[in-house]
Amino acid sequence: MYPKVKPALARAWRDTQTVQFGVTPAHAVVLGPVDTATGTLLDLIDGTRGMELLRTQGKGMGLPDGRVDEVVRRLAAAGLLDDATAGGPRAQAVRDRPQTLDRLGPDLGSLSLVHPRPGGDLRGVAARRGIRVQVRGSGRVGGVIASVLAGAGIGRVDVLDGGRAQPADVAPGGLGPGSVGRLRAEAARTAVREAAPGRGPRTGESGGPEPGLSLVVVAPRDGLQSWAPDPQSAADWVATGTPHLYAGVLEGTGLVGPLVLPGATACAGCMERDRVDRDPAWPRMLVQWRSAHRRRSVGACDLGLSTAVAGLAAAHALSFLDGELPASTATRWEASLPGLHWQPTPVLLHPDCPCGSSGRPEPVAVGSTAGPPLGTAAGSGSGTRRGP
After folding, report:
1. Is residue 266 within 8 Å of 347, Cβ to Cβ?
2. Could you tell me which of 68, 76, 64, 80 has the C-alpha nearest to residue 19?
3. What is the average per-residue pLDDT within 9-15?
4. Less Cβ around it within 10 Å: N or C end of the chain?
5. Interatomic CA distance for residues 331 and 265, integer angstroms
6. Do 215 and 320 touch, CB atoms closer than 8 A?
7. How would you classify the pairing of strands 132-136 and 213-218?
8. Minimal CA–CA distance to 139: which of 260, 244, 224?
């Protein structure tokens, strides 16, 4: 074991005997009391020394026998410790790709906080390499989402879209100016390939068959299809139990969610039935709106808002793929220009929908725990979800 205090958490002394790891309340932990020698030991736990060397150096600093092991155990229990050798063979395979590690350094830091066990960061990156995601749409929202997912280490990102790229499809982080005139699907594949930190596996990590779809992100260029999704288009995902997340921009309003977990949360059919219950004119208007959108080549999609929606949707997708349930689960988050106040709207199960969700409890987000705390959380908001 080569223990390392997680570098992702900034360290500061609250007073002469108390150390705080982390700035923000979600992950900050306070350690105390800490004497001068133990404070010096913390600087040595940097992943370059094994336990034997740490014990020897601790003894040279005057620390009693067993103190080094005690400090390391308590740091690990609080989720503050990493191990430069942990994670198993899949993590080692990531270590063997130094260029990939350099690109994913910030992602590794983030994963080390979300997965507090030593080696959780590399295990998380290794797991992402074996995931396959499909993005429906390559416009200002979908193209950016696909590139972000690929850049974050998702092993395979497929983009489905038709026609040829238009100037209005170009967006920083998505399709570039050189994509105009090319087939959208082909241009999106190029953007995904250029964003990826190295070549993704063509088959499963073990050399087996190609992985199944872990998630579909529905981000069509026509924002109406995210605002009022067609239940028929989602029927196959519901039938096969494929999770899917909606995102888009329509008339100056951005939306992220809901994340649909078939059989557990409300689907597009539930949403449509709920709208009809609240507004009997909805089906008649929807037919007219869909017809109008088919005739209109360019919609109202502010670049700043579309980029924010794409980033938020990609973050929610990654949270889900990393094993957590994001705030968009069974919830739609909306923000409209010019104020851009994000507001959540629960998406309710409908008793008449045949999706099988009605009667089942909504899923509850579960987070990994690091064991007994080393100190106290630095802020009262620790661990709470306050927004999208």
Report:
1. yes
2. 80
3. 92
4. N
5. 10
6. yes
7. parallel
8. 224
pLDDT average, residue stretch 26-54: 91
- Least confident residue range of 36-40, 46-50, 92-96, 108-112: 92-96
Quote the CA–CA distance of 243 and 227 in Å, as a whole number.
17
Euclidean distance between CA atoms 42 and 39, whole angstroms: 5
The predicted pLDDT at position 297 comes to 60
Select the more confidently predicted residue: 17 or 382: 17
Computed over its alpha carbons, how large is the radius of gyration of the chain?
A: 24
Sheet holding 244-250, edge to edge: 156-160, 132-136, 213-218, 244-250, 253-260, 331-336, 343-346
Measured distance CA(191)–CA(183) in Å, rounded: 12
Rounded mean pLDDT of the chain? 86
Could you tell me how many helices (H) and strands (E) the chain has, helices first? 14, 13
CA dist 303 to 152, 182, 295, Å?
22, 21, 22
Q: Cα–Cα distance between 132 and 215 in angstroms, integer?
A: 7
Q: How far is CA 71 from CA 10, 174, 208, 282, in A?
A: 18, 46, 42, 63
Give 170's DSSP letter.
B
Phi, psi of 16 (to 5 degrees): -70, -10
Place of tokens 């919830």: 331
What is the 3 state secondary structure string of 371-387?
Answer: CCCCCEECCCCCCCCCC
Closest among 55, 33, 34 to 44, alpha carbons compared: 55
At position 57, the amino acid (one-letter code) is: Q
Phi, psi of 376 (to 5 degrees): -125, 150
Q: pLDDT-derived band of residue 365, with 50, 70 and 90 as boundaries?
A: very low
Per-residue model confidence as pLDDT tens digits over 99-156: 888 898 899 889 988 888 888 888 899 899 999 999 999 999 999 999 999 999 999 9
At 62, is the secondary structure helix, strand, or coil? coil
Report pTM.
0.85
Domains and CATH numbers, the chain: 3-100 (3.90.930), 130-346 (3.40.50.720)
